[in-house]
Specification:
Length: 444
C-alpha cells in the first residue's frame, strides 16, 4: 500500500510495535492516529525484554540497539546520560531489563508529546481478530470492544507456546521451584538455552543440565572488530546454496590469511543478508533452514564475551553437557525418562531428569500459532504461512498475502512474523530499518 493512511492500529506493543510507533510518529501529519495494542501489562517488553535477571544481557552491543534507524547512537547516548554506561566500556552489552526501560521511556516521551494532539492511543488488552471492512479494518478485543482504522500492522513477535509436549518455557507458570540438585534437560543449545542456564544459576540451581540439539553447537562469543566492506556486486546472488556456502567459506579463508577475524566477515555480510535470502531459489531456502541454519546461527547470533565465559566454564566443569542428537521418547512417571539418540553413533541413551525446558528455537509452523490474531487470520484465509511455514507470507512491502494469493492493502506485518520473506528480521538493528521503510511507505 502506498500513499497516506491517517489511522493505523499496531497489534502488539512489544519492541517491534513500539519501534514502529516511534517511526510513524516522526511524521508531522496532524491527522495521523496511531493505536498501539498490547495484552501484557507493560509496553515495549515482549518475551525478550521482560526478564529482570541482570545476567540476561543483549546479544547486540549498545551501539547497535537504537530504536531509530536514522539515529543509530540513540540508545548508547541514553545509557551514558543516565550513568548506566561510560564510553570506556564500549562495546557494552546492557541488561535486557535496561533496554525495556529505554523503550518504556521512549514511549512515555511520545505519550507526553502527543497528549494534546491525540495522535497516540495505548490499549492494554488482548487482540482476538482483524477483519477488513469497506473503509479499513476492525480489530476485535478480548473485552468485547473493537477498534477501527484505515489499516492494521501485526507486530506480535515470537510465539510463546512450547513446541514439545512435555517441555515448558522458562519463566512460565509451569516453571515452579525445583530441588537445587535436580537434573534438567534443555531442548536446544542456542541463545535460549544460555538464558535458561543463567536463570537456573540465579535461582541457586546446582544440578546437571543436559542440553540437546541436532548438532550440539554452542553460540560463539562477540569480539571487538570492524566489519569488512562488501559491495552487492561482490556477492553471488541467486545461486544454489552449495555454491554460495563455498564462496562464503573462501571469503572467510582469504580474510583470515590477512589477519581478519571471521566475525568481521560475517558482520560485513549483514547489510546484504535479506537480499541474499530473497534472491535464493525456494530450494536453496529450504536446504538452508534444514541443513545450514544451525551453523549460521552460532556464528551470526553470538553471546556477550562475559556470558560466553560463564557458559564455557560450565561446559568444561561438566555442569552443562552438550549432546548432539535427538529425543526419540519421553516417559513421565513423576520425573522424566528420556531416550536420546546420538547424531554421530546412533546409540540410544536413557536419561533421568526432573524437568524439560523448551529452548528449541523460533522456527515453527506459523499455522499452529498460539497467538489469537495470527491463528484467526490463517483460519479465515485472510493470511497464509510462507512456503517454509516459518512466518506469515508477506510481500516485499510487508503486506499480508491471503490464502488465495491476493495481497492485502489493509493488513501488514513487521518483525519476526515476516521472517519467511526477510529472514534476518529478529534483531532490533534489522527491525528498525524495516519499520522506518514501512512508515515512509504508509505515510507517503
Amino acid at each position: 500500500m502506498t500513499g497516506r493512511a491517517n489511522s493505523i492500529i499496531i497489534v502488539g506493543g512489544g519492541a517491534s510495535g513500539v519501534v514502529l510507533a516511534a517511526h510513524l510518529l516522526k511524521s508531522p501529519n496532524p491527522d495521523l492516529r496511531v493505536t498501539l495494542i498490547e495484552r501484557r501489562p507493560h509496553f515495549g517488553q515482549g518475551i525478550a525484554y521482560s526478564t529482570l535477571l541482570s545476567a540476561h544481557v543483549l546479544n547486540v552491543s549498545a551501539a547497535g540497539m537504537s530504536a531509530y534507524a536514522d539515529d543509530p547512537g540513540n540508545f548508547w547516548r541514553w545509557l551514558q546520560e543516565r550513568g548506566l554506561a561510560t564510553a570506556e566500556q564500549a562495546p557494552f552489552y546492557a541488561p535486557r531489563s535496561i533496554y525495556a526501560r529505554y523503550l518504556g521511556e521512549l514511549l512515555d516521551e511520545l505519550q507526553a508529546r502527543e497528549k494534546l494532539t491525540g495522535r497516540l492511543r495505548l490499549i492494554r488488552e488482548e487482540s482476538l481478530s482483524i477483519t477488513p471492512t469497506a473503509s479499513g479494518v476492525e480489530v476485535a478485543l478480548a473485552n468485547g470492544t473493537s477498534v477501527v482504522a484505515h489499516l492494521a500492522v501485526l507486530a506480535t513477535g515470537h510465539d510463546e507456546e512450547p513446541a514439545q509436549g512435555h517441555a515448558i518455557r522458562m519463566g512460565s507458570e509451569a516453571d515452579t521451584a525445583l530441588p537445587p540438585d535436580a537434573g534438567v534437560m534443555v531442548l536446544g543449545t542456542g541463545l535460549s538455552m544460555v538464558d535458561a542456564f543463567l536463570a537456573l544459576e540465579q535461582r541457586g540451581h546446582r544440578g546437571d543440565i543436559i542440553a540437546v540439539s541436532r548438532r550440539g553447537l554452542l553460540p560463539s562469543p562477540h569480539r571487538k572488530g570492524n566489519p569488512i566492506k562488501l559491495d552487492v556486486a561482490d556477492i553471488p546472488l541467486g545461486t544454489q546454496l552449495s555454491y554460495f556456502v563455498g564462496w562464503f567459506r573462501d571469503l572467510i579463508k582469504e580474510n583470515q590469511k590477512a589477519g581478519i577475524d571471521w566475525r568481521d566477515v560475517v558482520d560485513g555480510l549483514r547489510p546484504f543478508n535479506q537480499k541474499i535470502w530473497q534472491n535464493w531459489p525456494a530450494s536453496a531456502k529450504r536446504r538452508f533452514v534444514e541443513h545450514t541454519k544451525a551453523w549460521w546461527d552460532i556464528h551470526r547470533h553470538r553471546m556477550a564475551p562475559e556470558v560466553y565465559a560463564r557458559v564455557t566454564e560450565a561446559v568444561r566443569s561438566g555442569r552443562i553437557r552438550l549432546v548432539a542428537g535427538r529425543v526419540v521418547d519421553i516417559a513421565c512417571n513423576g520425573e522424566f525418562t528420556v531416550q536420546v539418540q546420538s547424531r554421530h553413533t546412533q546409540r540410544l541413551e536413557t536419561l533421568e531428569v526432573a524437568r524439560i525446558y523448551d529452548c528449541s528455537g523460533i522456527v515453527r509452523d506459523i499455522s499452529t500459532s498460539s497467538n489469537s490474531v495470527v491463528r484467526s487470520l490463517v483460519d479465515r484465509g485472510l493470511a497464509r504461512p510462507d512456503p517454509l511455514r516459518i512466518g506469515l507470507d508477506v510481500s516485499a512491502k510487508c503486506e499480508i498475502i491471503a490464502g488465495d494469493g491476493t495481497v492485502s492493502a489493509k493488513i501488514l506485518a513487521v518483525g519476526p512474523l515476516t521472517r519467511g520473506t526477510f529472514f534476518e528480521i529478529d534483531a532490533i538493528p534489522d527491525i528498525r530499518v524495516q519499520c522506518a521503510r514501512l512508515s515512509k511507505q504508509l505515510l507517503g
